[in-house]
Alpha/beta fold hydrolase
Amino acid sequence: MANFLLIHGSCHGAWCWRDLIPELTALGHRARAIDLPGHGSDLTSIADITLQSYADAILSAIDTPVTLVGHSMGGYPVSRAAEQAPEKIDRLIYLCAYVPKGDMTLAEMRREAPYQPLMPAVIRAEDGKSFRIDPSMTRDVFYHDCPEGTECYANTRLCAQAVAPQETPCPLGANYASVPRSYIRCMDDRTIPPEYQVTMTEDWPAADVHEMPTGHSPFFADPGGLATLLSQIAR
C-alpha cells in the first residue's frame, strides 16, 4: 500500500483530485490532497504567496513518508520539498508537470516550450501579481477530453494564481537527487506541450517515464487509468 499526497497545479485546488482519490483508495492505497496557499479553501493573500510557502505547506502535511504527486505547476513545489526534506518522500511523481531545470523559473521554462497553448486563456490582474484563466477557454486548455460538465464544476472553483512562485527559481542538489522520481507524460496535453514534456524527460531512464493519451487533466479524463498507473509506479 502506498501513501499518496496529491499536489494540484495553477489555479486549481485539492478539489481537482475528486475522482482520483476514491480510485486509489479502491486499490488499497491511502490518498489525500491539500490546498496550496491561496488555493481552494486556503485564504492566504496573493501578496503572501511564495514558492517557499507552497513547499512549507506540503512538508507540513506529511506525517509519514509519502509518494508525492505534483501536477503541472505543482512540479516546482514538490521538487523544493524534496530538496528540503528528502526523508519525507518515498518517490516523486510528476504528472504532466514542470521539472525544475537549473536556475530557470517556471515562467522561463514555459517560454522555452515550442509553443504557448495556455497564454491566450490567461487574464492578468491589473497589478501584475496574479492571473486567472478565461472561463470560456478552460475546456479547450484543461478539460477538452473530460466528461461533460467538468468545466462547469471547475469554473466555480478555479482561483487566481499568484505570479511570484512562478518567477522563482528552484535550484536542486544532492537531497533532491536522492529521491526516486517518475514522470507521466500526457500526450494530448493542450497546456504543457507534449513535446516539451518529452524534452524535460529525454535523459531519464525509460523505466521511470510513462505516457497517457489524455489532455492536461487525466484525474478527470481517466481517473481509473491514472490510479492504476500510479499504483504500478508506487510498487
Summary: The mean pLDDT is 98. The CA atoms of residues 20 and 188 lie 19 Å apart. Strands lie at 3-7, 30-34, 66-71, 89-95, 122-124, 130-133, 161-162, 181-186, 209-212.
